[in-house]
Amino acid sequence: MRPIVIGAAERLSRPELLRKTWRKGQLTPYLFPYAHKYENTELYKDVCASVKKIVGCTIPRELSPCEPFNSCKRILRVIAPQFGDDLEFAEGESRMIGSLFLAALFALVLALRTRWLIPSAFATILLGYGFRKYREREVRYGYPNFTIATSATIRDYIIRPTPSSDQK
Description:
Blueprint: H1 2-12, H2 15-24, H3 35-38, H4 42-55, H5 69-79, H6 81-110, H7 117-159
């Protein structure tokens, strides 16, 4: 149920982009995890390289359309639980705002012929905008947290000497 609800909220909160992308026949570049914004940045390239190094292969987008973000979340839960918890909290916030946005959208439809139309429209626009910002923030903080956690883990692993069989 979650992918359907959050996917619907994602699409309905971006009407200006839907109009542009439907004409071109593609919708995904403007949706979560916003690969079009990050794929040309150095941070995104570092994240992809780190995920490939840790996982051992590149996960195709056909199998998981939210890559490398999903892999980042899973790896963060293992190597840096504090960053993983932070990312889960951000995800929970965006889900909550998305659910409220869909509820406000439903209330707007119900209020079409009543005096509650303007307050419902205002609440819907406000929650839709908030949902968009929370989703973007989730990704914007996720990639740097992953980079910090992996660089610290790799550095600690390289610096820390492993005991050899001679020293035992």
